[in-house]
Amino acid sequence: MKAIVLPGPQARLDDVTLGELPIPEPGPGELRFRVIAVSINPVDWKLTLDHKPEWNYPHVLGLDAAGVVDAVGPGVEGWEAGDRAVVHNSLWKAGVFAEYCLAQAHATSRLPDGVGFTDAAAIPCAGYTAYQALFRKARLEAGQTVLVQGANGGVGGFATQLAHRAGAKVIALARPEHFAAVRGFGADVVFDYRDADLLQKVQAETEGGEGVDVMLEVVNPGDARKSLAFVHYNGHLVSIDPLPVMTDVPSYTYAASIHEVALGGAYHAGHLPTQRAFARIGDDMMARLAAGEIDPMVEEIVALGDIPDALRRLQRRAVTGKIVARVAPDA
Known about the structure:
Helix 3 packs across helix 4 (154-165) and helix 3 crosses helix 9. This protein has 2 domains: 2-122 and 270-326, Quinone Oxidoreductase, Chain A, domain 1, CATH 3.90.180.10; 126-261, 3-Layer(aba) Sandwich (Rossmann fold). The protein has 10 helices and 16 strands. It is 26% helix and 27% strand. It has 331 residues and is an alpha/beta fold.
């Protein structure tokens, strides 16, 4: 099978290439997909600089895939060949940028009729992250106010849509050239994240000027006080990148709940409840797609062999929305 691989343990982003590998066989608890579409995420290029000791080489990259189950491993129940499916895969194992991939059955979601493979593949990494951040970490409710960093990106764009649908007031941060798109996702207010008066403007949009209920942070500020200043007392700061530094945060100042969202950690930690939650989150997100409630934000569709170039463009932040690679025609 054709696959996008890191050829060896010293390989880096410029070494990513299209290779030829044997078709894998599913083990206990695994499904094998005939891959139709995959999405390309920032974490994919970051992993070319952060190899994992569990990898074998050539290592297949990629985490998000939609396709058709074509083989079922021992012990798997409820799945059979021909089922349409979508998954956010483990970054500790061989990835999905290939004509075939393996996936944990308990973390896999079904693809409803009427939802295309391209749209489905765009959802998992960014969409599940936004979902977990808002609903499983911050417990966002209708009537609350959420501040979303990077609202034109994958995680920020899905978070803006989900928060809007949940009845929250969304204050979004983006560059001016992306304001119209972000408003289209449901943002109530959009500010340039570089605005010198940003803190005052955000506070003015909140009740009593006290700050937002939830801030979704996708760019690590270093010092946590830079983000906590936007959040009211007893609010929530949810971090997608590594957690900000709390060293200089005075006691008895914010009483904020600090949350980290890291999907990949659930596989490494072996935490089955969280892995199973990926399937439930995926089922919910796919139902929203089927109902037309979520824009998958697919901005570009490329071929499997174009993935190395797409990864380099993601590294340069020369991408808006989601890039999806088509690996095969629809079944």
